[in-house]
Amino acid sequence: MSEFLQFLFSGLTVGAVYALVALGFTIIYNASDVVNFAQGEFVMLGGMITWFSHAAGLPLPLAALVAIIATAALGVAINKLAIGPARGAPVVSLIIITIGASVFLQGAAQLVFDKQIHSFPAFSGDTPLRFGGATIQPQSLWVIGGALVVFVGLWLFFTRTLLGRAVLATSNNRLAAQLVGINTNFVMTLSFALSAGIGALAGVLATPITLTAYNVGIGFALKGFAGAMLGGMGNPKGALAGGFLIGLIEALTAGYLSSTYKEAAAFVVILLVLFFMPQGLFGRRSTERV
Amino acid sequence: MKKTLTTTVPAALIALGLASVASAEIKIGASVSATGPAAFLGDPEAKTLQMLVEELNAKGGINGEEIELVLYDDGGDANKARTFATRLIEDDEVQAIIGGTTTGTSMSILSVAEDAEIPFISLAGAIDIIQPVKPWTFKTPHTDRMACQKIFEDMQKNGFSKIGMISGTDGFGASMQAQCKDVAGEFGIEITADETYDPKDADMTAQLTKIRNTEGVQAVLNPGFGQGPSIVTRNYRQLGIELPLYQSHGVASDGFIELAGKEAAEGVRLPGTALLVAGLLADDDPQKPAVTAYKAAYEGKFKEPVGTFGGYAHDGFALLVDAVTRAGSSEPAAIRDALEATQGLAGTTGIYTMSAEDHLGLDLSAFRMLEVKDGSWSMVE
Amino acid sequence: MPKLTVKSATLLVLAVLIAVTPFFFPSGYYYRVGALIFVNGLAVTGIVILTGYAGQISLGHAGFAGIGGYACALAPEYLGLHPALAMVLGAAVSAVLAYLVGRPILRLKGYYLAVATLGFGILVSMVLNNERDLTGGPDGIAVPELGLRGVLKDWGLNLSNGQFWYFFCGIVLLLGAWIALNLYQSPTGRALRALHGSEVASGTVGIDVARVKLQAFVISAVYASVAGSLVALQNKFITPDVAGFMHSIEMVTMAVLGGAGSVLGAVFGAGILTLLPQALTVLAEYEQLVLGLVMMLVMIFLREGLLPSILRRLRGRGE
Asked: pTM for this structure?
């Protein structure tokens, strides 16, 4: 039992990071139908900027705030400069643009910062907490809590606020949204800022556990993308569930079957789910317009 | 915007041709993985080579001749490494090559170098690089097999016969995992738990729990490099595992202690080089001058701790400079012969003595068993 | 001047490029770069069929390149096959696998198809990385010599290693381009292009959408597989990088960057992206920065790809 509990904690810790990345994907996708492969770089930047500012003398909370704001600003810039001008391009082109942005940000990070691995202190110390014979780091609770808070926040935002519904309306039909008076440009700016900010927050929360370096982004992006697709792209519920599911599948496979093929297990599950539910677990069914 | 784009590409192509115009008497090529998954190894190697060439030229070069370094970044990709090796030899016309951060890139470079008969000093661990001996290929790092032997020797001394292993699935971890499993029997050691993790993984408690729950495990060994071993070490303490933890030479640097945290790293053992304990070396230690000079220069210039891997590049360059000096010539064949005749050259990794049968020139004594004590490396007697 | 068809014009341009550029090579290294461009061009021609003609996305085609490459390493050792036959075997395995995987996967659309193909590619690369006893693991494995160069030598045609692979890969690329261009004009090709326009519409006019998509997927897998084999045989060594995610991305980027709608555009894209890292060694630290920038700028400003945009501009000037 304590063994199972330990695997569960491991899966939840990792899954929370994936879920945070997946939630970031969701917002941009909802506003623009773009899957932003640079999402992982926001996580990297959240960690690297925090480390950099902290090392330069800022207190940790302030450093984290700087990182989140700077990354959010960068997200807005990416929208204005790269994704906005490519509106209406085919999916392949959009994938290449966002991967290009990801490569670009990596290149910039290795110049501005360095190529070493970095970390900063955990928020509530390193003394593990014990539950039923298993242990968990206090920082894991920060990440799990962060994922839940962001999820609830987004859910309320999309269902209860006018602005959130405006985002969804923009996604469904941009022109119609404009016609009913929604400032779609503002919606896009907001979505990218929010998404990049959440990515950076993931980096801030996770770095004391995962460590960070200029090239960690692509790994986060792939897992987050997989999580978001598993849950059904565009649905915060799906992103949360998908992210945690992948983390849990990995940990349980590593614990009970083979650690070598734990990632394979995650992708096999994704493939199987997509075979039977082509829209993911919580995805919307849509009909193609001709 | 469109205009600048179409003109920059041809401009860069012209630059490509121009890059090889400047000529020096001695031209050394290097292809290392300064970016990509092995960047933690390749980046300090690239920096070390650039720094040493600058230093040497400031002192007047070798036998009065300046050295030119042509350095490429292969990103850890074997196919790219082969292209750069071809470029170094056919286009830049270098007289010797240092590089090949990973085993895969080293294998690619060596096949080109052997065909072209250009001496090549590899910076990668696997034993296949120099065994069987290839006439033009040498290497500076001890093999991962030797690291396993050194660790098992220490385990044997402590009476451990059943151990658990948790290895990274990157080239470094996988190769060392295989070598350790291969030699374990010679030391009466049985590997009863054998787990792996992906280098990008964030949490290894599942694997470590499995190892902990395996009957009779007396110690744990973690072959790997990058952030993985730091996370393993933290998770190890988090789970409260009391068994001795051995790391590999892949994380032999002060950076590891910092990343894993001083508390978590306390008591970790690994086979390291003199470089990590420069301050603790006896004054008559033959490696002391090389080690202290390199450490001071590197840390002064780049403001980051030296590591074993930068040390490999240092030794590769030292071997080459020594060979060219003794050969009194920069002909590839003369350099090769002189390299093979290297006698007692003290580097940061160990003391090299090459021969026609041995293109590594190190034995187990090059490794020192180190342990983290009070947050820094100390030597184990 | 008599009017050339697109097909003969493309083949002529490629043939002339392959034959004439070596006269301007300052050193043997350029043969190596040329050979790489042709191999990449071949893989990318497959992407043209899948993405350019049929409008389907794959982020996992490097998986097929990996199968082709490792077939050349493993089949000679375990099955005693000649490396050339190993290449054929690899292509056959890739085709069968593409057929089996493609049937369920190709029902997906857009990003869902992207993640499914991505998953497939990652699974292949994981097996190559982890089955160390068989594949040599991440450190790679040796590949036997093709041996054709020796045969040519006996016939009195003495080529350097670099020259041999340059011309050999060039000829395979020409062959691949010829097949792709014929396909374009065939009924299947027309069906594919209809599909690209609108799947729903082509379904209603009686095109068997699923079958046609599957055909494109299988053919493009064979292209990737042969390209992977050529890399392995040329390097006499192979590592799992060939099946990696970044290699899949690279293939798609080459195709779309150059212009995925045409074979020549795609080969042009392969040329640009193969040359770029070589040219950027002069500013090594900025390589990733520039590469990312090029990917974004071309896709934003030259949406149909480099070659079509350049051609249109030239034509515009001529009028």
From this structure: 0.90
